[in-house]
């Protein structure tokens, strides 16, 4: 497979999607559904259609947040798309949201592209070849001590807010110096890849939220563990870091 050609295709799709999201028209903010703690906007559907149209130029099938599993065979390469990660932020104008496109095979990320829409920047990376913010190479931070590290995390839509669940959350985060909740798993992983943040963890997060970001972290020299999350087949428990030593005490 020509990964460079696939990367260029994903970058073109990411740029087009980011440009469309930047318009943030009133009709984009129309709420399609607001079940539980989740929210879906017209923009999610609209931008996913743009990305799917671009990816038609690739032979690989697509798993996408809004339209589901487009006949993927996990033994062969497949795209994983989140047209808008940080939908709630987008809705409210909080400047942390992005478009996310990853290429995976089996349980392995191959490449990823994240369009940071408010930042007008494009992250890209190919595992084993390198990661870039626009055209500048990026690398994870050299941090090895959790006591000095900043952890990005989040509350996925299906997470229980019951006391016991929140106690588990506290136990996980208290070894870190600083905690950040950006409201976009994909942006959080891009920040790990470019060294602004040292680690990211979230349980019960969907594969499309982390697919491109996982590729970026690996491509930028970091490490990531991805386990099966809840009962939803696409749910994952994720721990990413500049260095696995950051997780030794958890
Ligand atoms: C959400 C974001 C958020 C995470 C949620 C996701 P969405 O994605 O990634 O950080 O905590 O679990 O659902 O809904 O904005 O695409
Ligand atoms: Ca998402």
Task: Please give a structural write-up.
With 250 residues, the protein is an alpha+beta fold. The chain has two domains: 136 residues, Fructose-1,6-Bisphosphatase, subunit A, domain 1 (Fructose-1,6-Bisphosphatase, Chain A, domain 1); 102 residues, 3-Layer(aba) Sandwich (D-Maltodextrin-Binding Protein, domain 2), CATH 3.40.190.80. The chain contains six helices and 15 strands. An eight-stranded mixed β-sheet has the order 4-3-5-6-7-8-9-10, sandwiched between helices. The chain has a five-stranded mixed β-sheet with strand order 12-11-13-15-14, with helices on one face. Strand 14 and strand 15 form a beta hairpin. Helix 1 packs antiparallel against helix 2. The longest helix has 21 residues. The protein starts with a helix and ends in a 9-residue tail after the last strand. The model has no long low-confidence stretch (mean pLDDT 93). The chain binds D-MYO-inositol-1-phosphate and calcium ion.
Could you provide a short overview of the structure?
The chain is of the alpha+beta class and 250 residues long.
Characteristics:
single chain, 250 residues, alpha+beta, Fructose-1,6-Bisphosphatase, Chain A, domain 1, D-Maltodextrin-Binding Protein, domain 2, 15 strands, globular, binds D-MYO-inositol-1-phosphate, binds calcium ion
């Amino acid at each position: 497979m020509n990964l460079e050609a696939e990367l260029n295709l994903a970058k073109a799709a990411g740029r087009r999607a980011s440009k469309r999201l930047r318009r943030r028209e009133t009709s984009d903010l129309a709420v399609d559904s607001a079940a539980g703690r989740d929210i879906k906007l017209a923009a999610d559907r609209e931008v996913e259609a743009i990305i799917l149209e671009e990816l038609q130029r690739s032979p690989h099938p697509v798993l996408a947040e809004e339209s589901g599993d487009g006949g993927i065979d996990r033994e062969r390469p497949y795209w994983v798309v989140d047209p808008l990660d940080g939908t709630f932020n987008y809705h409210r104008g909080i400047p942390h949201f992005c478009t996310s496109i990853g290429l995976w095979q089996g349980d392995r990320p191959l490449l990823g592209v994240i369009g940071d829409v408010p930042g007008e920047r494009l992250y890209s990376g190919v595992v084993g070849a390198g990661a870039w913010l626009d055209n500048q190479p990026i690398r994870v931070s050299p941090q090895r001590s959790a006591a000095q590290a900043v952890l990005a995390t989040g509350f996925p839509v299906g997470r229980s807010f019951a006391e016991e669940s929140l106690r588990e959350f506290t136990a996980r985060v208290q070894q870190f110096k600083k905690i950040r909740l950006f409201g976009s798993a994909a942006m959080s992983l891009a920040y790990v890849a470019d060294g602004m943040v040292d680690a990211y963890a979230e349980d019960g997060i969907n594969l499309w939220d982390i697919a491109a970001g996982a590729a970026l972290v690996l491509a930028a020299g970091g490490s990531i563990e991805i386990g099966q999350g809840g009962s939803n087949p696409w749910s994952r428990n994720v721990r990413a870091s500049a260095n696995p030593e950051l997780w030794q005490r958890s």
